[in-house]
Amino acid sequence: ADPEARALAEKLAAYRGVWVFVEQTEGEPARVSWELMGKGRELADTLGVPLSAVVVGSRVEELCYESFCYGADQAYLVDEPVFRHYRTEAYLKAVCRMIDDYRPEIVLMGATGLGRDLAGAVATVVGTGLTADCTGLGIDDKRNLMQTRPAFGGNIMATIMCDRFRPQMATVRPHVMPLPERVAGSSGTVIRLRSKVREEDILTKVLEIVSDRNKDQVDVAGAEFIVSGGRGMMGKENFVLLQELADELGGVVGASRSAVDAGWMPHERQVGQTGKTVRPKIYIACGISGAIQHLVGMQDSDVIIAINRDPEAPIFEVAHLGIVGDLFQVVPALTERLRSL
Ligand code: FAD
Fold first, then answer.
1. What's the Rg (C-alpha) of the chain?
2. Is residue 283 classed as helix, strand or coil in its secondary structure?
3. Which UniProt keywords apply (predicted)?
């Protein structure tokens, strides 16, 4: 056999196991970490290797036990005061050292602000590739990670492989993967590590944390019921119709990019490729045509209801229930009906 190919195969084979980085803020885990744990379990089972949680922070040991409930076999824990607040330099050093010492073949992180920052830095330092914002992950017949994500403005899906380097690294946005069932009382092994990161070596100091969450901000990504409006809403003032329906359902109002670009809704309500990815129980699309960039953000909703006066609108291809009609009649009628229940 080709000696170069053999050397590469040997280098790759030295890496084993699937890791999921457990993101936390002051000990509070990010839900996306458990979503990834579910996917990580699947990948680890396909490969026949252990699934490990990577827990870095201060007073975060509890998260190791929580990770077992979501499917991890073991957890690598670095628990030191220097990791109380996220700082790239400190976390980077800790995670890279773990990778050097334990050599996982796959490392997954949430595509959150923190995850995007850390994953990019880690991939650079350990000298491997990173596929950001994956929407699908699988294993091919050569045991490589197949990382699928939208490309060219969502018009095609690209499958990206990292077949010469390890670990294979990917980030996945919140709500793209389903949350696995939590099995209380599951057990696993906690592997405690010392980081050697010293406070005096970290240039960044956290002086104060100021929350940017203003009271009226609505969490579209986490909502169970979403009523979204598009260009068909014809104007900002008409969104009150959607708000009334959303209130009846105990949900929130979302929007397509056209509605956001028109200034009818703030950007944090935008659903889609350049907005939020949502996975509610019910998604009601009102006056939204169903462009691919919108669909990638909501097509995994449990039930999709589309209201559009154009029977040919692509939104009907993903809708479970479609109403062909004028939303200015249909939406108030639905709200009335719900009120009368
Ligand atoms: P239109 O496509 O104009 O659809 C309006 C619909 O309303 C039509 O189907 C019409 O039949 C219906 N309608 C009109 N009046 C009524 C009525 N009275 N009753 C019932 N139905 C009615 N888009 C997103 O949404 N999210 C994204 O994150 C996003 N990211 C993008 C990223 C890139 C790189 C690009 C290139 C585009 C992106 N887009 C995104 C834009 C996307 O391509 C579409 O342009 C957009 O989603 C269209 O919005 P819309 O469905 O509201 O408007």
1. 22
2. strand
3. Electron transport, Iron, Iron-sulfur, Metal-binding, Transport
Question: Within 10 A of 95 (CB to CB), how many other CB atoms are there?
Answer: 25
Report the atom number in ligand 1 closest to the C-alpha of 256.
Answer: 25
pTM over 0.90: no
Alpha-carbon span 322 to 312, nearest angstrom? 11
Report the C-alpha gap between 79 and 204 in whole angstroms.
19
DSSP at 199: G
- Nearest CA owner, ligand 1 atom 52: 230
| Alpha carbons 301 and 276: distance in angstroms, whole number | 13
Predicted-complex ipTM score? 0.99
Atom 48 of ligand 1, nearest CA residue: 258
- What's the gap between Cα 306 and its chain centre? 25
Pick from 53, 55, 125, 57: which is nearest to 87 by CA?
57
Question: Rounded to whole angstroms, how far apart are CA atoms 230 and 267?
Answer: 13
pLDDT in tens, 248-292: 999 999 999 999 999 999 999 999 999 999 999 999 999 999 999
Distance 272 CA to ligand 1 centre (A): 10
Nearest CA to ligand 1 atom 18: 326
229 Cα to the center of ligand 1, angstroms: 9
CA atoms of 337 and 341, how far apart (whole Å): 7
CA–CA gap between residue 89 and residue 92 (Å, rounded): 5
Q: Give me the DSSP letters along 215-280.
A: TT---TTT-SEEEEE-GGG-SGGGHHHHHHHHHHHT-EEEE-HHHHHTTSS-GGGBBSTTSB----
Closest CA to 287 of 334, 328, 236: 328
Looking at the CA of residue 288, tell me the nearest atom of ligand 1. Answer: 51
What residue owns the CA closest to ligand 1's atom 44? Answer: 291
- Residue 301, SS3? coil
Where would I find the beta strands (DSSP E) of the chain? Answer: 18-22, 24-25, 28-29, 51-57, 74-79, 106-110, 130-134, 136-139, 145-151, 156-160, 168-172, 189-193, 225-229, 252-255, 282-286, 303-308, 321-324
Per-residue model confidence (pLDDT) at position 213: 63
